Amino acid sequence: MRRPVQTLLLALTGAGLLHAALFTDLYLRYVKAGLRPPLIASGAVLLLLALAQAAVRHRLSGDPGHEHGHDHTGTPRVAWLLFLPALSLLLYAPPALGAYTAARASSKPVAAQKKGFAPLPAASPLPLTLTDFTRRVQQDRSRAVGSRTVRLTGFVTPAGEDGGWYLTRIIFTCCAADSQTVKVRMYGTEAPPADTWLAVTGTWHPHGTLGTGTAQAALDVREATPVAQPVNAYTDDLPLTPS
Amino acid sequence: MNKADEPVGVAAVPLGRAVRRVRPRTLGAALALTAATAAATAVLLPAAAPWLHHPAVQAWRTVCLAITVQALPFLLLGTALSGAINAFVPADLFTRVLPERAVLAVPVAGVAGAVLPGCECASVPVAGSLIRRGVTPAAAFAFLLSAPAINPVVLTATAVAFPGDPAMVVARLLASLATAAVMGWLWLWLGKEEWLRPLLRPGHTGHRHGHSRWTEFRLGFQHDFLHAGGFLVLGAMAAATFNVTVPRSVLDAFTGSAWLSVLFLAALAVLLAVCSEADAFVAASLTGFSPTARLAFLVVGPMVDLKLIALQAGTFGRAFAWRFSAATTVVAIAASVLTGGALL
């Protein structure tokens, strides 16, 4: 790889990282929010490297012996592959994981609640995360959730058979490669288009014994309103609306 | 860089020189053209090729980019450290600090891995530069294997992922250290320097005359980053391919047999290439598998996976990478089974 190309590659990679992490929220599609400072720092370092490389070349361009100075290392051709993520970030960033991935994953097992359940807040409809809803349905012996109207937020994943669908969240702990899916089955309405973000209001769909492992995490939908994709789409938290 | 306006054709010999001098410029132009074409393709292709919009292709690109973006800061940290070791650290520092006998240096280097916070991408270039600085390869490999598994960040993540189960953290620490040490000793016993040929090529060691140390640092840093970065993308592509083509629900078929599940989760760790800071959470989600199988996932993952094999092939050479990865997998599985049997 020639040195001007190396400079270009460093600059593009740095610009790509800054574009994704500093100027836009693109990085949230791929990694956790906590990685933002290291990503910005990396982008800046790469741009500085490119600048230094360009400046040194410029300063020494009158020196005919210089060309033979550093090429001994000969960056291998594999470095060309780095153009792909750099250009991807800058020009054509792939979308966040969605229904395709969720449909092919089994639902993340919900950890057992050891401490017992606090009483549910009085709000109605009661906003719950998909995980909390599942846990209440399958573990809460008081069966408090059975008589409540709840509101869940997630995107639509078609169930495949019989036109049914799930409300889903994809969560990851580090990056999209370790994604896990939380699903709640929806009953009572036609499946909206895949990947639509919805706030769904409804009551537990009786199936199995409430408060035990046989209960299905499912909802009889009373109302489903399209919502904008939350900023924190990759956690299973109550939605933060985009500002 | 080239003097195009230099008078040419004054004599037969300068003509030859002039031709040689013009060539890099043509090459540079050709490369710039290629880059421009690539950029144009990246913009136009999505419109032209509908398959690029297929959800599977999109998911593949997302996972591939996610692995790359996640790893880049750590790779940058690792290559910066490796560049700094090359340029600023006196050659005899490591030989003075480490025990003289290689057999003793191996476990010391393994424990020293605890000081490099971050995930596995950082440790490969650092281990490479340690070897170039005269550290015995066996000790550098022990460091390479233990650093991503036993540093405080990763152990804390493990404790968070397995709440109320401190035995898992202890087992991970012990099994990883044991594997690192055994692999170091194994290298002393069976390893051949010739497998490391790409690393030991002359002209790539330490400070040379004629450059300032800063230039040396910058060039080493840049070279190592571009080099390892290319291999990182290659490994990310392989891991993304597995990640997208094999649905996670296939896993449930293997939970039954104790032995099969250990081997299966070890293989999964290699194929998934999850960063060592995150793998504990993935392991925690693999309920249905025995604790020993999950321990194997945690021990093998930071030491061997697709992107690491690609990175090692780039840094140490292919002859080394496949032998080392295969041996490490076997040793890591054995260490996990023994530790798991005793502690979990």
TrEMBL record, chain A:
Residues 148-234 form the DUF1980 domain. InterPro entries: DUF1980, DUF1980_C. Signal peptide: none annotated. It comes from the Bacteria. The chain crosses the membrane at residues 39-57, 78-100. The keyword Transmembrane helix applies. Pfam families: DUF1980_C. NCBIfam families: TIGR03943 family putative permease subunit. This is Membrane protein. It comes from Streptomyces capoamus.
